[in-house]
From TrEMBL:
Single GO molecular function: structural constituent of ribosome
Protein name: 60S ribosomal protein L16
SUPFAM superfamilies the record matches: Ribosomal protein L13
HAMAP family, A to Z: Ribosomal_uL13 (MF_01366)
Keyword Ribonucleoprotein recorded: yes
Keywords attached to this entry: Ribonucleoprotein, Ribosomal protein
GO cellular component, one term: cytosolic large ribosomal subunit
Native organism: Rhodotorula paludigena
One GO process term, biological-process aspect: negative regulation of translation
PANTHER family listed in its UniProt record: LARGE RIBOSOMAL SUBUNIT PROTEIN UL13, RIBOSOMAL PROTEIN L13
Basic and acidic residues bias: start-end ranges: 64-83
Region of interest (Disordered), ranges: 64-129
Record-stated family: Belongs to the universal ribosomal protein uL13 family.
InterPro entries the record matches: Ribosomal_uL13 (IPR005822), Ribosomal_uL13_euk/arc (IPR005755), Ribosomal_uL13_sf (IPR036899)
């Protein structure tokens, strides 16, 4: 990134950048007063395989731990409410784990889990055992405010641009006046909308996947993750990007032809230099 701040915004092409590294650099520039525009956010990469980005394994003893906590609470209040309180908590914990395993198990791709009950190990297609699996992003989608989730949040964004925006916001003190002003300097887009399709774009070497990630490591794109969790504009963005690339290719051909014509004109001008000198001597410059 540039060391000095400019009045014009910096347009960053998000393709091939790592999400966290790009977000940290952009957040620092925003706090320093620089305006930043990030385009093609759907092509930002996340290190690790798509399965890792979407899945996190929860230990099997979670239900037992919650059940044990319920029994301890029941034992401490046995004199007041009896031991039935702890058994109810244990039953509630087991039911929650059963619902999670049944709900998340049907979403997994490429593996056939048997319907795992609470405290039971599921078998994959290869025959190996796997603990109760929860989709990480789906787990994030399930986080909600108990009082008024539609008003109080948290709000779960599916679009790639909003995912990047929220990632950057987490690195900025957005609840202060300085952080609010910094976030107002940021613009994020899927694809390359006008007028940024005619502006020069830059990359951030410190955040490029080919430079920061070891060759051969797995990675995934935000576009696929967003589409899997409910983003419904992937085909629209792809179609608009195809149209933009066709126009850009035609513009590049015209520009190349004009440059070749200019080079040819300069070569012919050097051949006519003696004639131009004689004409200049007679006042025909």
């Amino acid at each position: 990134m540039q060391a000095t701040q400019s009045a014009a915004p910096i347009v960053i092409d998000g393709k091939g950048h790592l999400l966290g590294r790009l977000a940290s650099i952009v957040a620092k520039q925003l706090l320093n007063g620089q305006k930043v525009v990030v385009v093609r956010t759907e092509l930002i990469n996340v290190s690790g395989s798509f399965f890792r980005a979407k899945v996190s394994c929860a230990p099997l003893h979670t239900a037992a731990r919650e059940a044990g906590r319920g029994r301890r609470n029941g034992d401490s209040r046995e004199d007041e409410r009896g031991s039935a309180h702890g058994s109810q908590l244990a039953y509630g914990a087991s039911r929650r784990m059963q619902r999670n395993s049944e709900g998340f198990g049907s979403v997994l791709e490429g593996s056939r889990h048997s319907t795992a009950q609470s405290g039971r190990v599921g078998m994959t297609a290869s025959g190996s055992t796997r603990s109760t699996t929860q989709l990480r992003y789906h787990e994030f989608l399930n986080k909600r405010h108990l009082v008024n989730p539609k008003k109080s949040g948290p709000f779960h964004h599916r679009a790639p641009s909003r995912i990047l925006y929220r990632t950057i916001r987490g690195m900025v003190p957005h609840k202060t006046a300085r952080g609010t002003a910094a976030m107002e300097r940021l613009k994020v887009f899927e694809g390359v909308p006008p007028p940024y399709d005619r502006k020069k774009k830059v990359v951030v070497p410190q955040a490029l996947r080919v430079l920061r990630l070891k060759p051969g490591r797995k990675y995934c794109t935000i576009k696929r993750l967003s589409h899997e969790v409910g983003w419904s504009y992937r085909d629209v963005v792809d179609r608009l990007e195809e149209k933009r690339k066709v126009k850009a290719a035609a513009f590049y051909e015209r520009k190349s032809a004009a440059q070749k014509a200019q080079v040819a004109a300069l070569k012919s001008a050097t051949k006519a230099a003696p004639i131009s000198e004689k004409l200049a001597a007679f006042g025909y410059a």
